[in-house]
Amino acid sequence: MATPDQKSPNVLLQNLCCRILGKSEADVAQQFQYAVRVIGSNFAPTVERDEFLVAEKIKKELTRQRREADAALFSELHRKLHSQGVLKNKWSILYLLLSLSEDPRKQPSKVSGYAALFAQALPRDAHSTPYYYARPQSLPLNYQERGAPSAQSAGSAGSSGVSSLGTYALNGPTPPPPPPALLPGQPLPAPGVGDGLRQQLGSRLAWTLTASQPSLPSTTSKAVPSSGSRGAARPRREGDAAAGAVEVTEAALVRDILYVFQGIDGKHVKMSNADNCYTVEGKANLSKSLRDTAVRLAELGWLHNKIRKYTDQRSLDRSFGLVGQSFCAALHQELREYYRLLSVLHSQLQLEDDQGVNLGLESSLTLRRLLVWTYDPKMRLKTLAALVDHCQGRKGGELASAVHAYTKTGDPYARSLVQHILSLVSHPVLSFLYRWIYDGELEDTYHEFFVASDPAVKADRLWHDKYALRKPMIPSFMTMDQCRKVLLIGKSINFLHQVCHDQTPTTKMIAVTKSAESPQDAADLFTDLENAFQGKIDAAYFETSKYLLDVLNKKYSLLDHMQAMRRYLLLGQGDFIRHLMDLLKPELVRPATTLYQHNLTGILETAVRATNAQFDSPEILKRLDVRLLEVSPGDTGWDVFSLDYHVDGPIATVFTRECMSHYLRAFNFLWRAKRVEYILTDIRKGHMCNARLLRSMPEFSGVLHHCHILASEMVHFIHQMQYYVTFEVLECSWDELWNRVQRAQDLDHIIAAHEAFLGTVISRCLLDSDSRVRHAPRGSVLGFLGRAYAAGGQAGRRAGV
């Protein structure tokens, strides 16, 4: 006898049976024959070989598991798969995936019972020929024997697979015995019970489908009612509404609710303008629980309408700006996800309408299932509706702040949703920001950015007046320090280009790359506001500010001009001031109306050449000039003379008109004090010279003694005042200014330090408006000394005559 091929199907199947049962080949002969018969049968599912129906069932299952996003993703992937011709048996693959995804522990539904009914047949059942049951003689007889089903056993059999057919058979006009179950693990009927039974498969299926009709008497079966019973009209109860009440089935209510979800009035559920909500019409004959459930579900439609109305109105408003349009786009994106869920629900409802067999409630749409499945979408729409209310009348950075406020919620799902919307809404703001700090360009057509520009301001006031913070538009996720730095970065770039005429590309100033090209970049940036975002702003701020200060100090000698102000306008160059006063004395004693500025300018140049001032930079010396103040009647040259220092270009940003006015006021005060010292020195020298001449006139000794004492007191006073002004005011303030300038990180720090220096000098020299009133006698003393010196000179000249 030839040895059988070890790789033949029969040998492999026999080996499999031996391995599973753990017996020899002789002991598994009967099981082997049974396995051969099962393999030879036409085992096929009841689901129609329709790729679309299987895909819809998969989407329905994903929706039932509250995985709406996965359902939408599956729909997109299935569309791509359908458009490609790589796979031929797409239906088989989809059905396999659906079968593998089913939970094996789940109790089989009625539809799975239909599958078992079709699957139990051997080849003779695969055709429309009559069904003959005769137990195979080769099958083992050690299965548990089961007699004819009774009414009691039918109650426990109605919820599981094929055994439930016995229940339906009891309800028939001539109850036949149940068909045998040939699936492994199910009991077989006793011998002889099924012998001679002739019944077509279509007839048995018809009995199954009609078992749940209301016309048949009910049993004690626990089987779930089918969708046919769900869609049937509910009998009117005693006490229902009076005449005119309309019977409404739950199926019709579900269909209405699906329309309401889209903002469309249904047949029985409509929008009430008076109450501003959806209501179930009063004549609908519904139980209170169904009515309340329908109203709760209809809230989803009200939320949808609220959001849709906002987006429709704002999408057409161009003045809403880019941030507002991004907000509308984010709302549209969420609504699209919501519409995908509705499409899945509509597809399931359509599938139930088109299905050839009735599905049980466990597979159909009900109000309670909708309530569960739409819980998460309802929470999302509630969050969006709250955002819409909170964002009314806002735009730009203010709108971004309103959205950011909702990220503080403790609900992680709501926070995740709002953070996603914030990444979309803030993307235009971050685009404005990066365009500003890296290019110095401000393209804010609808005034949404927190940096405002005034195009009417000229270049000489660019730093002070052209750019400012628009505080209502500052996003709440940015600090005021960050906004100030952002303002300074762009302002520095424009100052370099327009005032300093430095056209160096910003890429050479800032070694930072842009990182807000997409909303995803913005979302990543928001996850690390304190590090990544702060780091980018700080890097751009330090680089641009350092470059600007280098240009001002090296190219425009800002610090040299500041020191020149100290030497010439605050009388820090002592030899120059003393020599200038000596040269100007003959000119300034004349009436102010007889002075000529070019003569005084010539004297100034002579004083410069004769002192250490000649070693200063020509750029500084050419800015030093003479200025004559407004002439009043009786003024002399001493009253109207002043030094001046011309400033223009970038340094005029630091030495503004207000600053130069303070310098002029301080110079006049110091110049008058220096003149008084000069006068007292001349008086003292005169007294020394006349002391010997007047010794022969003892009658004048007392008067001369009093004059010497008075002159000494005046000299002491003026020396004390000059000491105070020079050391306690000027030197201390100047040292503080210089230290602050050396530590300054940007131009604003230098400007603030310089203004603080001038303010200290003016107030401590008692030149401010309050001190003028309280200390008016001080000016009178200086004026009196000047007039006394002039009168003394005239008396001396007369005596000499």
Task: Give me a quick take on this structure.
The protein is mostly helical. The chain contains 32 helices and twelve strands. Residues 173-190 have a biased composition (Pro residues).
Task: Please give the structural blueprint.
Blueprint: H1 9-21, H2 29-39, H3 51-64, H4 68-83, H5 90-101, H6 110-119, E1 131-132, E2 145-146, H7 151-157, H8 165-170, E3 188-189, E4 198-199, H9 201-209, H10 227-231, E5 246-247, H11 250-260, E6 269-272, E7 277-280, E8 284-285, H12 288-315, H13 321-354, H14 367-373, H15 375-390, H16 396-405, H17 412-439, E9 451-453, H18 462-466, E10 467-469, H19 480-498, H20 506-509, H21 519-526, H22 529-555, H23 558-569, H24 574-588, H25 597-610, H26 618-621, E11 624-628, H27 637-640, E12 641-645, H28 657-693, H29 701-743, H30 747-764, H31 769-774, H32 776-800
Parallel strand pairs: 2-3, 5-8
Antiparallel strand pairs: 1-4, 6-7, 9-10, 11-12
Describe this structure in words.
Residues 254-555 form the Gamma tubulin complex component protein N-terminal domain. 60% of the residues lie in helices and 4% in strands. By secondary structure, the chain is mainly alpha-helical. The chain has four domains: 9-39, no CATH class; 246-390, no CATH class; 411-555, no CATH class; 559-800, Up-down Bundle (Four Helix Bundle (Hemerythrin (Met), subunit A)), CATH 1.20.120.1900. It has a two-stranded antiparallel ribbon with strand order 1-4. The protein has a two-stranded parallel sheet with strand order 2-3. Strands 5-8 form a two-stranded parallel sheet. Helix 12 (288-315) packs across helix 15 (375-390), helix 13 (321-354) packs antiparallel against helix 17 and helix 28 (657-693) runs parallel beside helix 30.
